[in-house]
Amino acid sequence: MRILGVDPGLTRCGIGVIDVDAGRRAQFVHVEVVRSSRDLPLAERLGAIGRGVERALDEFAPDRVALERVFAQHNLRSVMGTAQISGVVLYAADRRGLGVELHTPSEVKAAVTGYGSAEKQQVQTMVQRILRLAEPPKPADAADALALALCSAWKSPVQAAERGAAAASSDVSGGLTPAQAAWREAERRAVAGARRG
Amino acid sequence: MRILGVDPGLTRCGIGVIDVDAGRRAQFVHVEVVRSSRDLPLAERLGAIGRGVERALDEFAPDRVALERVFAQHNLRSVMGTAQISGVVLYAADRRGLGVELHTPSEVKAAVTGYGSAEKQQVQTMVQRILRLAEPPKPADAADALALALCSAWKSPVQAAERGAAAASSDVSGGLTPAQAAWREAERRAVAGARRG
């Protein structure tokens, strides 16, 4: 199953694509950051980002989309732009018949670092380890998009056929749910990677 | 010039279309309210509203779009949905090469009633009078979409050729700007209409 993660933003919008197998092992496919200049009118900025997202949806043909759930908290001005971009992403996904999973930033951080208030750098480091990349994905928006896709891969129900396989393997690994088993495995690898590094 | 106004909303999204001549006289063309059920997933709701807006853009082929400027003020939850819809509208307009004018709710109220804190019913009444409709547009979202289009027609620069004509006629009407002249004229008609009623 292929998942495309989007970290929505009007100035920088991260797009990350991963493949996940029945055992929930994740493979890096693609990452990019689409940008729009602050000097452009709002419609043109949304146009530039929206076209980038649609291009990626068409080129990488994901099975589903993972998108950051937007909250109106601190910076209301930037939240409006983020909400507008997320609307465009949801609409583009719906037009292609793709489901969209929404995840809060703390869910995403907890999924890849085990800690819901992790720093941006921790997320970048863990995304690098889990996906076995040569370098941490930069800027943070790129890492966040991949982290969203990973979060969605581990948290959401897999397809029926895959679910059977994962359930069977989870019996072997001591009664863990597929998500727990995948999480344990990623954690084990990341720790092993950190020791090697 | 044809203007399509959108009062963005996730549950009810108003769409109103007017034609404006060189003298800024407005003619009613179309009004509708596109709806989406609260029971649907967010992506499908945005899909339903977005398709309605795109259908109207294609059917009525406006020269520009007038959209409510979204602020994060009172109800943050509903504001997020409104911002997402507005993102979809901005993106759909940009894809068609259409400019979008953003107006605040108080600008719109002031444009059609002369008072920035007017009640919804006042806006409905004035939109009915200005566009010479048999009944006030209902629900409020329908009236708001037409009011947005009227606000845009009166406040924004017209095309070069039209600007010349409007400037010439404004000289006749005592040195008023075209917007002021149009505003006076609408006000005069509305007051006359109210007296007749």
UniProtKB/TrEMBL annotation, chains A, B:
Region (Disordered): 164-197
Biased composition (Low complexity): 164-183
Organism: Pseudoclavibacter chungangensis
Similarity-based family: Belongs to the RuvC family.
Primary enzyme class: hydrolase
Protein name: Crossover junction endodeoxyribonuclease RuvC
GO biological process, alphabetically ordered: DNA recombination; DNA repair
PROSITE patterns xrefs: RUVC (PS01321)
GO CC terms of this entry: cytoplasm; Holliday junction resolvase complex
Residues binding Mg(2+) 1: 7, 141
Family matches, as Gene3D superfamilies: Ribonuclease H-like superfamily/Ribonuclease H
HAMAP family recorded: RuvC (MF_00034)
